[in-house]
Amino acid sequence: MSGTVENLVAGDLSIEVLEDKGLVRCDWRGRSVEREADLTLRPFFDRLLARALELGATLEMHFEQLDYFNSSTIGTLITFIQKARRQKVHLRMVYAGTIKWQSLSFDALRMFEKSDQLFELKVASS
Amino acid sequence: MKGRFGFSIDLPVRNDWRNVDLMRSSIQSCFMAVFRDLDGCHAMSMVTGELLENAMKYGHWGESEQVFRLRITGDSTHATIVVENPASRASGHVERLDQTIAWIRSFANPRDAYRTRLREIADADVKQSRQLGLVRVAYEGNGILSCAFDGSVVTVTVEIDL
Description:
Chain A contains 3 helices and 7 strands; from the N terminus they run E-E-E-H-E-E-H-E-H-E. Chain A is of the alpha/beta class and about 130 residues long. Chain A has one domain (about 10-125): STAS domain (Transcription Regulator spoIIAA, 2-Layer Sandwich), CATH 3.30.750.24. In chain A, helix 1 (about 35-55) runs parallel beside helix 2. Chain A is globular, with a radius of gyration of 13 Å. With about 160 residues, chain B is an alpha+beta fold. Chain B has 5 helices and 5 strands, in the order βααββαααββ. A 5-stranded antiparallel sheet of chain B has the order 1-2-3-5-4, covered by helices on one side. In chain B, a hairpin with a 3-residue loop joins strand 2 (about 65-75) and strand 3 (about 80-85). In chain B, helix 1 packs antiparallel against helix 2 (about 40-60), helix 2 packs antiparallel against helix 5 (about 130-140) and helix 4 packs antiparallel against helix 5 (about 130-140). Chain B starts with 6 loop residues before the first strand and ends with a strand. The chains are: A alpha/beta (about 130), B alpha+beta (about 160). At the A-B interface, helix 2 and helix 3 of A face helix 1, helix 2, helix 4 and helix 5 of B.
């Protein structure tokens, strides 16, 4: 039993975790600008994956309210996508298609969507 | 400065990681006060942030060298963003910069370069950004990168059409 994952607050970034009926939802807010995003985010992501496996839940990350992330965060998200796929955890990332930087950043991640449908990108309904 | 919307920013920046986001968000706020195009303002601030991160991570910082320079000039249609920081050829940073810029230019478009770099990071299976920030500048910021080295200072320049 890994237990509920606590919210993450790191500098100007907060990620709120909610569990609801087969879903572990994470709402990103603020700015992810750490020099080594991996140091903060990877342990948090590992806890999320363990919890999702325990519950047999889908992990859903919402970025609509995020103001900015740096390239270090993007690198960490990519390794997270790969790890979730290896562990057969269904991961969905939801972004604001009306915000150009989010659209550009997340559209580029579509290359990681495969026929196994374990990773999915979704534009938020406005 | 050119025309009614000409602008020029020239600042020394202390080598303190907190200053990256302070400068990035300040640049965004400044340009949001001038221009209606929020996407363009975000592109300029993202490019500024990634260049500052690059300077702080890879600059040759000694006890007497703790400040580098940010310059942004342009008008309503174009911006030039320049970051100058101390550098040493022995560190390999200047060579890596040259190689990364040449590598980006070897692709038909910046999107292909960016996707290739993402794939490399995924395949490496470890946190290995490999100057993803510069490739992001080219793709997301639609910036044209160049760099120059005078023996002690490296200058990275990005040209953006707004």
